[in-house]
Amino acid sequence: MLSIALPKGRMGNAVYERFAALGCACPEMQEDSRKLVFENPEAQVRYMLVKPTDVTVYVERGAADIGVVGKDVLLEYDPDVYELLDLKLGACRVAVAARNGWKEDLSLPLRVATKYPNIAREHYRRQNRDIEIIKLNGSIELAPILGLSDVIVDIVETGTTLRENDLGVFETVAPSSARLIANKSSYQFNKARIDGLVKELEAMS
Ligand code: PRP
Description:
Helix content is 31%, strand content 32%. It is built from eight helices and eleven strands. It has helices at 10-21, 55-60, 71-77, 117-126, 142-145, 160-164, 184-189, 191-204, and strands spanning 2-7, 37-40, 45-50, 66-70, 82-86, 92-99, 110-114, 131-135, 151-156, 167-176, 178-182. The strands form two sheets. The protein has a six-stranded mixed beta sheet. It has a five-stranded mixed beta sheet with strand order 8-7-9-6-10. The longest helix is centred in the C-terminal third of the chain and has 14 residues, at 191-204. The structure holds 1-O-pyrophosphono-5-O-phosphono-alpha-D-ribofuranose. The site of 1-O-pyrophosphono-5-O-phosphono-alpha-D-ribofuranose has 12 residues, from strand 9 and helix 6.
């Protein structure tokens, strides 16, 4: 049985469709339920639905053999896993955004609100810029509006959230999209099967 950790939400659904098309369907998953683990014994697969940022934890520790996660999460947590394939789903970018018309004062440390403290720190380390990280867990866009921060480092997909809050992209930090990852020992153990999956998924990307 191959265990697959999928992120709950839109990206997870899109990825599940791809696995289903490869004969790894679990129709129960598309029913509206609170179940978190789904098995298809004939296809020898088990799916688990987890928080997007937790996919790396399940895969790194071997609770799941493989998983799908955004590149943003990989950059932030740097887990000890194999990154096998860019599924080219959920394309977005990590960006610095600020209020429209905002002017940077280089004489002061920059106050950066984000749920990606490591990405933000690394980005500004490369620029040699003094910053103060304000770690938030959601609705990051509120921070510059309320004066809690000067800028945010966050995911921009369609740009709607920024537009609707009178914010704009200041600079792009890194592109992101869904990646297939594998636990290192699970990969060695199931190499033929996982490589086969990668090939088939690659052909669909
Ligand atoms: C993410 C991100 C932005 C938004 C960007 O938030 O943090 O707020 O999506 O998407 P857009 O460019 O298409 O508007 P998410 O929906 O994950 O919720 P969160 O605010 O709780 O992090």
